[in-house]
Structure formats: C-alpha cells, structure tokens
C-alpha cells in the first residue's frame, strides 16, 4: 500500500515525499482513512511505528489549507517533550499552507503563548496544566474545535490526569471527533477510553503491550550497590556513544549523573524539576553526541525521539510493567535494531517476572565480562561516602515527588515558568500523577484560583520526531 491510496491530497502527498517517506506504516495505513472520514479512533501500536503521522496527516487533510482564527484541533500530550515532538511533525507536514499551530506547556513564559492565541491558530498542541491556565482565564476559545487527540493515551487517562482531562472537556463542543493513540492500553484504560469515544474504529496493529521485534532484551542480576560500576563498565567496554538510562526518581537521576561524571562519562539528567531550558539543552546534547548518557525518569522520557538510538538501560526497573514497553520503545524505532539492558537487584526480580509476563517473552540473563570485583567494591564505597555528604531530603524536596511544595497540594517548583500574567496571583494546587511527579513533568505549576481538594476548587478565586 502507498500513501496515495489513503485519500490524501496531492499537496500532502508531495510534502510526505519531500520528508523522505514512501510507504505508510501499518498504523498509518489503517488509521488515516477513517480519521479523514471523521470517525473516532482508538489506536494501539508500538512506539516508533509512526503514530504521530497517523493522526497528523489526516487531520491536516480535514483542515484543508486555509487558516481560521479559532483553534479547530487540540492535541493533548503528557509531557513537554512529546508536545514539542508533535508540534514539529505538524510544522513538517503543514508545509507552506496557511495553517497555523502553537505548542503550549509550562516551564516557559506565558506571553508568547497568549500572543499566538491572539494572532489565531488552527492547531494547539498542549500539556494539560498550562492549557487549563489559559482556558480558566479566558485567553483561549475552543468553541469551534472539531478534533481532540489524546496522545500517549494510557498515561493521559491514568488517574493522575483524568481530572485535568475532564476539566478540559468542559471547554470543548460535545459534538467532535476524538482520537486516542498509545503504545499500550490496559483493560481499564480501554474501558475508560471507550467512554470518551463514539462508535470508535479500534486499531491494534501489534499484540497488546508488544515490543519492537528488533530490540534485544537482556538482564544483569546485580547487587544494588554495584549497579553504577556495572553501568560505567558497560558504557566504556562497549564503547557506547549514546545510551538512555532510566531511574525511578528525579533525585536518583541527579545522583547517577554525578556518579557517571566521576567515572569520566559525560551525562545529563532529564526530569520535571529541571527548567525547560535545561531539559532542552540536555536533549540537544544527547542528540548531537556531546552527552553520552541521558539519565531520565519515565514521564520526562515520553516523546524522546532519537534516530538510531542503540542502547536503553533500566538502571532501576519500573514498578509498573507497562512502563517497560514505553522505556525500551525509545530504541529499535522504525525497524532499526536496538538493545535494552536491565540492571536487576534482588528486590526487583518480581518486577522482572511481571515484565516477562506482560511482553510474553523471557528476558535473557547476561554476565558482565571483565568486571573486577575490587572496582565494584571501590565504587560502592565512594557512592556510600558521597551519600553521607548529600543534603538531607525533606518531604518537600524528595526527588520522586515533583519538587518543593508550598502546601499539601501546592503547585511545586515552577521550573522557570516566568512572565506570568499579573492578574493571576499565587500558585494553584496541583494533583500529582505517575510514579515520578507527573504534574511537574508536564509543566503543571500555575496561577492560583483557590485551593483544590480531590480535583475540585474550594473557596473563592482570590486576587524531530518519529513520524
């Protein structure tokens, strides 16, 4: 099947050809026609198989080439990085049309986003927190919206985001097209997604929770104290130039970066407590090769798209097996080969068994050759000594809880939000989500309109992507 058989206009076909694509992926060939016809779609496909283009291309086809001032399409994404990736895809395929788009997330100034709304945009790509800021203050009118997209829908519809999604839905027309795309869907998520869709076309181009065929899965059974030494040895002995490393917490990511740099390995952290500029710099350095190891948390890594990324390491296994699929989906993209290695301590072996059951395959156990036991002992001793000198963690600044909190449900670290409109004093409390502080990961800190409990306000308002 070719793109010209999917109902796309000559203009879009030329844009696709100029981008270097000749054949649609399975998710694209099955999703594009029903989306063009206006159907709701629930699409499940492996990460790296072209999910973004599967909804961007038919949406552009439906919009045509003419610009309207009010937004007609809203794409919600769980992280800034994923939102930026989708926006890049829109820019690529919209080509020289008159269609306008903007990307909206926290951690950056409000004013450029407000200015874009005033000029008029056809497509808004956003994370929920900052979008709700604008909607609550009347800066954005979505009354003409025709299409809503939830990207990485399993995370978006998880309990941490469902309240935000429901708030956004109140600002949208009831009659609209709704599209949900993700690499994984649990039974509960599929049921919840079904409540948002009308007679959806369900597309599942891969076995549920499957991983890319050309990714090798291996595990190293290792003492927790030896993990850093093993990781450094793998990077050096394998002459790795690019490896994405996952930790469970932000504090753990920061600590591992310092340890790797002690070992002479260039490293950077990517998580929600970093400012947007720091996140962009870390990701840019990783892409251009100046950073060898990018150490990331699960939420922040959504949307990372590196062509030909060869290695992913689970420094700590996720306690939710489905997150393993998302993690290793960063490698083996678009048919390329990749390697996923997990460093598994004794107390993580139950997680490994759950992962093997989910992906329906055994993860090969591997031995690390050439490791001197004395090096492991020395590294563990250095790490223990360094840990003694670290600042004592408090409930307000633990790495895994999204940063300092002014109150029990406070907005947390704004990560460089800057330039907030003057008519919005204070910070509104935010519900956390995910295992690593999803609110900050998605840029959710924002102005106050009263305290919230259980997802409601109480009281008065007060003063380049894989295509």
Automatic annotation (TrEMBL):
CDD domains the UniProt entry points to: DEADc, SF2_C_DEAD
Entry-linked SUPFAM superfamilies: P-loop containing nucleoside triphosphate hydrolases
Enzyme class: hydrolase
Keyword Signal: no
Protein origin, superkingdom: Bacteria
Keyword S-adenosyl-L-methionine on entry: no
GO cellular component, one term: cytosol
Enzyme Commission no: 3.6.4.13
Basic residues bias spans: 445-456
Bias-annotated ranges (Gly residues): 397-419, 457-467
Substrates-to-products reaction catalysed: ATP + H2O = ADP + phosphate + H(+)
Boundaries of every DEAD-box RNA helicase Q domain copy: 1-29
Any matching Pfam family: DEAD
Gene Ontology MF terms in the entry: ATP binding; hydrolase activity; nucleic acid binding; RNA helicase activity
Residue span(s) of domain Helicase ATP-binding: 32-203
Family: Belongs to the DEAD box helicase family.
Name of the featured protein: DEAD-box ATP-dependent RNA helicase RhpA
């Amino acid at each position: 099947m070719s793109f010209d058989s999917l109902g796309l206009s000559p203009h879009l076909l030329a844009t696709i050809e100029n981008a270097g694509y000749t054949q649609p992926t399975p998710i694209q060939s099955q999703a594009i026609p029903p989306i063009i016809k206006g159907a709701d779609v629930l699409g499940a496909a492996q990460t790296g198989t072209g999910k973004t283009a599967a909804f961007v291309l038919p949406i552009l086809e439906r919009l045509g080439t003419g610009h309207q001032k009010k937004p007609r399409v809203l794409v919600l994404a769980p992280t800034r990085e994923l939102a930026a990736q989708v926006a890049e895809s829109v820019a690529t395929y919209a080509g020289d049309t008159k269609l306008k788009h903007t990307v909206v997330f926290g951690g950056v100034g409000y004013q450029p986003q407000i200015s874009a709304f005033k000029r008029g945009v056809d497509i808004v790509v956003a994370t929920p927190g900052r979008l709700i800021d604008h909607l609550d203050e009347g800066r954005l009118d979505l009354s003409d919206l025709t299409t809503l997209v939830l990207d990485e829908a399993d995370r978006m519809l998880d309990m941490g985001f469902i309240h935000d999604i429901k708030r956004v839905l109140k600002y949208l027309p009831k009659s609209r097209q709704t599209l949900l795309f993700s690499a994984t869907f649990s039974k509960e998520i599929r049921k919840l997604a079904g409540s948002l869709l009308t007679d959806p076309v369900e597309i599942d181009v891969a076995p549920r929770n499957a991983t890319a065929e050309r990714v090798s899965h291996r595990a190293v059974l290792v003492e927790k104290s030896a993990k850093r030494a093993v990781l450094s040895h793998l990077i050096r002995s394998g002459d790795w130039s690019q490896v994405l490393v996952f930790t469970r917490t932000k504090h753990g990511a920061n600590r591992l970066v310092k340890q790797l740099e002690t070992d002479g390995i260039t490293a950077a952290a990517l998580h929600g407590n970093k400012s947007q500029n720091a996140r962009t710099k870390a990701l840019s350095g990783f892409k251009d090769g100046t950073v060898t190891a990018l150490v990331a948390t699960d939420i922040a890594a959504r949307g990372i798209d590196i062509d030909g990324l060869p290695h992913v390491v689970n420094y700590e296994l996720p306690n939710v097996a489905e997150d393993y699929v998302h993690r290793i989906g960063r490698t083996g993209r678009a048919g390329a080969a990749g390697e996923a290695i997990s460093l598994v301590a004794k107390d993580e072996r139950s997680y490994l068994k759950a992962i093997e059951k989910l992906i329906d395959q055994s993860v090969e156990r591997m031995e690390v050759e050439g490791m001197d036991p004395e090096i492991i002992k020395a590294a563990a001793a250095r790490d223990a000594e360094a840990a003694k000198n670290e600042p004592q963690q408090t409930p307000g600044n633990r790495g895994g809880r999204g940063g300092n909190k002014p109150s029990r449900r406070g907005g947390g670290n704004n990560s460089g939000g800057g330039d907030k409109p003057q008519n919005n004093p204070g910070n509104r409390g935010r519900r956390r989500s995910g295992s690593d502080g999803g609110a900050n990961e998605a840029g959710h800190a924002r102005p106050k309109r009263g305290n919230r409990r259980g997802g409601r306000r109480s009281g008065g308002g007060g003063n380049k992507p894989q295509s």
